Amino acid sequence: MNTILVVDSEASTFDLFQKHFTGQGFSVHHAATGKEGLKKCLDLSNPLIITEMNLDDMNGLEFIKQAQHLVQDINIVVVTMFGSIENAVEALQLGAIHYLVKPLSTKKIKEITAKIKHTPKKVKTTLDQGLNIVAESQIMREILDNVQRIAQNNANVFITGESGTGKEVIAHTLHYQSLRAKQSYVRINCAAVPETLIESEFFGHEKGSFTGASTLRMGRFELAHEGSLLLDEVTEIPLALQAKLLRVVQEREFERVGGTKSIKVDVRIISTSNRDIVSVLQDKHLREDLYYRLNVVPIHIPPLRERIDDILPLSEHFLKKICQENQIEQKQLTKKAREKLLEYHWPGNVRELANAMERAIVMHPSKEITPDHLMIDSHCMPPKVTLEDIEKNHILEMLQEEKFNRSKTAKALGITVRKLNSKIDEFKIETPE
Asked: Which of 122, 161, 163, 173 is the Cys-Cys partner for 274 at CB 3.0 to 4.6 Å?
């Protein structure tokens, strides 16, 4: 925890903290408003936040809530000129690690130093910029080459692929290799936000716009201004909101919920989905006009079973990483364990592989990881099915459905009876005389 963010409209307060903490090796940053502070929460690497309770644009308690919404488990110290027991209790209940009343003496600032030293470092939920993507397969190398080229323009990107393939990692890479890398990278999981709240999450709301809206709140689009916004699982956005989202994508402006003032934003939108897009569009779960606006540049991440060359390098990467994080002596995969990893189908993709490695490391103390340590079942792998198998099974099912009436079966299949007879002979399908 070597970075401190001071959120206070008074420059003198920042100067005081900067003078004290810079001499102790801390990097001290300043934000004059809550809005600026929230943006810097995302830009700085795991900062300790020291915030005034009475900010010019929002209440300090609301700032704490929004900061923790953006960065889980962030450490916050509250200082204020007008202290009250109620505010102190609420701030601490919200997760603040300390509460101080101005004026700030050297003794009080030392209290913050003591808190920093005795507070475990918390992990920032947004990924660090130093991203290391393990990719040995030809197809993933080509994708990463494309990502580098795509990152240099501002076109919207739509990333598809099964759950666990690494769509969010690619989105993160796009941002940090782009010209927007020094600006905010904001993420929203569209599937996890209740339908009644998602509009407020996107666009923010004005104070008093609905029951419970006690203060002004900025939405993700506003927080991502000049940066990148990741719409994770974008196909889960309710249809009622998609028209409003389309307008923002097209015109780059919106109004907060309950507001009338148009707010202009400059945002690069990166969308992801693990669903079959053709089916989603056919079933009218996603507006076509919105999809085409978001899908300017498509990227498809193949499942792990289609990039077998990545399995062992990824396994070694997770072994090393997890052992280091848990301060465990480095472990090795046996030859049989490697074979089992390559034989498995990996329905959960890279995420499942990482979990399998972590289980093996944590549950078994031995220096070597054997097949028995890998809690995966290679027998779950679906059988290899050929096109001939599919065609044969389909013809047999249609024959059974039509009670082996060849004329009706041929009509249902859209082929001639002669062609059907030929296929029955070719596939050696047994039919009643």
From this structure: 163
Q: What is the pLDDT of residues 374-396, one digit of tens each?
A: 988 654 444 455 667 778 878 88
Tokens 């056919």 correspond to: 282
Strand partners, 230: 187, 270
- In three state form, how does the secondary structure of 179-193 look? CCCCCCEEEEECCCC
Q: Is 98 helix (H, G, I), strand (E, B) or coil?
A: strand
Distance between CA atoms of residues 168 and 180, nearest Å? 17
pTM to 2 decimal places: 0.64
CATH superfamily of 3-118: Response regulator (3.40.50.2300)
Q: Where are the alpha helices (DSSP H) in 152-209?
A: 167-176, 198-203
Q: How far apart are CA 433 and CA 425, in angstroms?
A: 14
Residues 6+ apart with CB under 8 A from 33: 7, 9, 55, 56, 57
Which residue is it, tokens 């009080």? 108
Q: What is the C-alpha separation between 173 and 132, in angstroms, rounded?
A: 9
Query: Could you tell me the sign of the dihedral formed by the alpha carbons of 199, 201, 205, 210, in that order?
Result: positive
What does the radius of gyration of the chain's CA atoms come to, in whole angstroms? 28
The C-alpha atoms of residue 188 and residue 232 are separated, in whole angstroms, by 6
Nearest to 393 by CA among 411, 417, 418, 413: 413
Q: Where are the beta strands (DSSP E) in 315-378?
A: 332-333, 368-369
CA dist., res. 291 & res. 162, Å (int): 18
Residues 258-282 as b/e (b if ≥16 CB within 10 A, e otherwise) read ebeeebebebbbbbbbbbebeebee
Tell me the residue type at 255.
E
d(CA 34, CA 204): 14
Listed by start position, the domains of the chain span 3-118, 138-300, 305-380, 387-426
Name the burial class of residue 155, with classes exposed (0-12), middle (13-18) and buried (19+) by CB atoms within 10 angstroms of its CB.
exposed
CATH T-level assignment (fold) for domain 138-300: Rossmann fold (3.40.50)
pLDDT, mean of each 10-residue run, the chain (433 residues)? 85 87 86 88 80 85 80 79 67 79 78 64 36 81 90 94 93 89 87 87 88 83 92 93 94 92 94 93 93 96 93 92 85 93 92 92 88 75 60 83 85 84 84 71
Q: Which residue has the tokens 């490697």?
A: 338
Cβ neighbours, 10 Å, residue 319: 20
Give me the CATH topology for the region 305-380: Helicase, Ruva Protein; domain 3 (1.10.8)
Residue 140 neighbours by CB under 8 Å, 6+ apart: 302, 307, 310
The DSSP output letter for 369 is E
